Amino acid sequence: MEKVQHITRSAIRRASNIEVPPQAKQNTQDLFVNFCLILICLLLIYIILLLM
């Protein structure tokens, strides 16, 4: 159990040291926003079809 905790801690430490470029962060946010917009559009189409 102690070893697992040590491995987990070192993995978290390594992951937090990785620098994320601002461009990558921006791309991820754009992707997320696009995904949400597509979901909302699909939901609206579904509701309109249900109401017909």
TrEMBL record:
Its membrane topology: Single-pass membrane protein
TM annotation in the entry: 31-51
Major location category of this protein: endoplasmic reticulum
Pfam families tied to this protein: Phospholamban
Single GO BP term: negative regulation of heart rate
Keywords from the named record: Acetylation, Endoplasmic reticulum, Membrane, Mitochondrion, Phosphoprotein, Sarcoplasmic reticulum, Transmembrane, Transmembrane helix
Protein's UniProt keywords contain Phosphoprotein: yes
The keyword Cytoplasm is assigned to this record: no
Compartments where located: Endoplasmic reticulum membrane; Mitochondrion membrane; Sarcoplasmic reticulum membrane
Record-level GO cellular component terms: mitochondrial membrane; sarcoplasmic reticulum membrane
MF terms in GO: ATPase inhibitor activity
Coiled-coil regions, chain positions: none
Family designation: Belongs to the phospholamban family.
Stored PANTHER family: CARDIAC PHOSPHOLAMBAN
Protein role: Reversibly inhibits the activity of ATP2A2 in cardiac sarcoplasmic reticulum by decreasing the apparent affinity of the ATPase for Ca(2+). Modulates the contractility of the heart muscle in response to physiological stimuli via its effects on ATP2A2. Modulates calcium re-uptake during muscle relaxation and plays an important role in calcium homeostasis in the heart muscle. The degree of ATP2A2 inhibition depends on the oligomeric state of PLN.
Subunit annotation: Homopentamer.
Name of this protein: Phospholamban
